[in-house]
């Protein structure tokens, strides 16, 4: 319960808020739901969703990985954090000229 | 065997089949393919601007375009910043100061926020009299609002502590679609570059890919050992990056439906709070509980840089659409622009 909240980022946020905010018991009880706790409808939906997900048409990694890498390597030339030429005109750095308007 | 017991067995069996189907297409790993690739050189980004004005912890930041961004703080304000000049374009007082997320519409016409009030409030920035007012309050979630992202000026997606995500019609204030299936609080969401799908990360340690129009969960990614706090699409829309309380980030390939690599280091023992990829996706910037941001080479899974300068947890991070800068927001009440 509470210890789950504390060990997650949401817990840090909620711990912070709790110091001066009256929270609902629903928040305190926001636990990880296990399969045992699902009712019949939820369990049926869970099974149906898994059936749908199984149908997904999976590509071979020998095809998808090289294409991902190729896309990234081609884009790196345009990536301002990797190509210093792009940041020669840096909107967040004042140019040396002072302009009186 | 009871109906419930049968369903549980069926679920377990389907999960095993999915695991087998993933293995069947795994004829190459990312590590295999980049064995001959060099790690990128050390990346050193400098603080170019510090945005000062919030009086308390910053929980969220989102870029509208490559100049304007909106931030949300526990001081009960949304501030729209001109990051070039550090000027505050708008300072919007909120009804509820317990804000956890904010978003800028792609059009630049609206911003949204929400948190412990369980609502998503939409603000019109381009009202006739120049005043920024609440345009709509989207209420139906039974848990806190953890994240929100606009699809356009009339549609927004929210994620909630009630374990669901929702697609809203802003004009009518109604729920168009409820995306249910996560077994724990939904903490974060990201919209695909083509706006057809979105991803959610949750406290059930999984990330889910959803079809926005038919409401179906297409894929579920596991592997993390704790809550997923941050999630984002790889810039080409074909992969997903997650950040977790288990101190790691992971890259999942959508096309082969599996995890490609984990970004972790024995020296990092604290949770990931936020993440953003650089324009090419070669770099992943991730904010951590230990006040730093680490920069990862996404293909080689090595740390190639660090953003240090905040005096408290980095709670949020975002890269501009043109990739020219990133913004970090912290519990120290400041936002920093880096490049």
Automatic annotation (TrEMBL), chain A:
SUPFAM superfamilies, sorted: Transducin (heterotrimeric G protein), gamma chain
GO cellular component, one term: heterotrimeric G-protein complex
Family matches, as CDD domains: GGL (cd00068)
Domain G protein gamma: 34-101
GO MF term set: G-protein beta-subunit binding
A GO BP annotation: phospholipase C-activating G protein-coupled receptor signaling pathway
Listed Pfam families: G-gamma
Name of the protein described by the UniProt record: Guanine nucleotide-binding protein G(I)/G(S)/G(O) subunit gamma-13-like
The species this protein was found in: Carassius auratus
Gene label: LOC113094167
TrEMBL record, chain B:
Ranges of the WD repeats in the UniProt entry: 51-91, 138-178, 179-220, 221-262, 307-339
CDD domains registered for this protein in UniProt: WD40 (cd00200)
Any one Gene Ontology BP term: signal transduction
One Pfam family matching this protein: WD40_Gbeta
Domain of life of the source: Eukaryota
Keywords recorded for this protein, A-Z: Coiled coil, Repeat, Transducer, WD repeat
Protein name: Guanine nucleotide-binding protein G(I)/G(S)/G(T) subunit beta-3-like
Organism phylogeny: Eukaryota, Metazoa, Chordata, Craniata, Vertebrata
Gene (name only): LOC113116843
């Amino acid at each position: 319960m509470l210890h789950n909240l504390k060990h997650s980022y949401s817990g840090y946020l909620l711990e912070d808020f709790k110091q001066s905010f009256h929270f609902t018991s629903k928040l305190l009880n926001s636990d990880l739901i296990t399969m045992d706790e699902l009712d019949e409808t939820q369990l049926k939906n869970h099974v149906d969703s898994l059936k749908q997900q199984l149908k997904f048409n999976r590509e071979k990694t020998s095809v998808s990985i090289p294409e991902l890498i190729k896309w990234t390597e081609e884009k790196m030339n345009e990536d301002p954090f990797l190509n210093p030429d792009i940041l020669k005109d840096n909107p967040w750095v004042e140019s040396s000229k002072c302009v009186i308007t | 065997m009871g109906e419930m017991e049968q369903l549980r067995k069926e679920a377990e069996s389907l999960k095993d089949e999915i695991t087998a189907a993933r293995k069947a297409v795994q004829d190459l790993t990312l590590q295999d393919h980049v064995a001959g690739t060099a790690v990128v050189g050390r990346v050193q980004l400098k603080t170019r601007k510090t945005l000062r004005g919030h009086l308390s912890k910053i929980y969220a930041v989102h870029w509208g375009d490559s100049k304007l961004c909106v931030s949300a703080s526990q001081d009960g304000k949304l501030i729209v910043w001109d990051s070039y000049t550090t000027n505050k374009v708008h300072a919007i007082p909120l009804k509820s100061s317990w804000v956890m997320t904010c978003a800028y519409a792609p059009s630049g016409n609206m911003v949204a926020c929400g948190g412990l009030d369980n609502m998503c409030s939409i603000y019109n920035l381009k009202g006739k009299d120049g005043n920024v007012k609440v345009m709509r309050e989207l209420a139906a979630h039974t848990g806190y609002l953890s994240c929100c992202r606009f699809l356009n000026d009339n549609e927004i997606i929210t994620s909630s502590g009630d374990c669901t995500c929702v697609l809203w019609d802003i004009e009518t204030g109604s729920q168009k679609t409820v995306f249910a299936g996560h077994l724990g609080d939904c903490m974060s969401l990201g919209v695909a570059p083509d706006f057809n799908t979105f991803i959610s990360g949750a406290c059930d340690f999984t990330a889910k890919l959803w079809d926005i129009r038919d409401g179906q969960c297409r894929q579920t990614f596991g592997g993390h050992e704790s809550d997923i706090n941050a999630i984002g699409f790889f810039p080409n829309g074909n992969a997903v990056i997650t950040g977790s309380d288990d101190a790691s980030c992971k890259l999942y390939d959508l096309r082969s439906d599996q995890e490609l690599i984990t970004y972790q280091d024995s020296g990092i023992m604290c949770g990931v709070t936020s993440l953003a990829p650089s324009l090419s996706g070669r770099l992943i910037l991730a904010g951590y509980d230990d006040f730093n941001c680490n920069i990862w080479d996404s293909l080689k899974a090595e740390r190639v840089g660090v953003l240090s300068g905040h005096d408290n947890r980095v709670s949020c991070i975002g890269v501009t659409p043109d990739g020219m800068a990133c913004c970090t927001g912290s519990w120290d009440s400041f936002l920093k622009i880096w490049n």
